[in-house]
Structure formats: C-alpha cells, structure tokens
Amino acid sequence: MTTPRALIAIVDDDEFLRESLQDLLRELGYAVAAFASGEEFLASDTIASTSCVILDIAMPGMSGPELQRELRTRQPEIPVIFITAHGDQNVRSQLLQQGAVDCLFKPFTEAALLGALRAALQGTG
Q1: What is the reported pLDDT for 21?
Q2: Is the pLDDT reported for residue 85 higher than 80?
Q3: Nearest C-alpha neighbor of 53 from the set 91, 110, 88, 100
Q4: Computed over its alpha carbons, how large is the radius of gyration of the chain?
Q5: How large is the average pLDDT for residues 63-77?
C-alpha cells in the first residue's frame, strides 16, 4: 500500500513533464512539490518531509546523480527514482547500483511510474 499523502518531490528542468507528473500524482492522492533544478530543491524546506524524489538525470547546473549524492549526506533514507530521455542501459545499471529505486526512460508509462513509486514507498512510512 502507498503511504497516504506521501510527499513526492519532482526535480526536472522540463516544465511540461514536471507539471504533467505533478497533476498525475495529485490525482492519485499524493502531495507533490515540483522543482526546476536540484539547487531549487536543496534550498527548499521540503527535504525533511519528502517521501520520494523523482529526478531527471540531465539538468543544467546540478545533475540528477549529483543531487542524489548530496541527498545521501542530508537525508539518506529518501528513495530516488530517476527519469531520463537518454536511454542508456549502462547508466541505468550504474544508477541502480548507487541506490536508485528505478531509472525510467522517457516516455515512460503511468504503470511503470506507479510501480517504481510503490517500490520506493514500501521502505518508507
């Protein structure tokens, strides 16, 4: 079961995708906070209450993997789901080895995202 009103943080520089994910997750009952960059997320006051981060790999400034490393020092228990437009299985394998719950290639299905979220939230809450 998912945690009721779990806070999902979306960090992606693609405004359309960020807003689409935000709308979808809210419809599914999650609380959502969306950020255009890793720096914006780190400067927010939501990190401590975040249940899961959905994180783009390639962004201007801080990359997704860089943000994941920073999160490990601040809130190591927050699960991370990566999303990327660059379908590289080697990168996916590396991210999973470094502790990501999943790495989804854009465009991904709603079912794939929900499966990754369920897996991420099982260990929290």
Answers
A1: 96
A2: yes
A3: 100
A4: 13
A5: 94
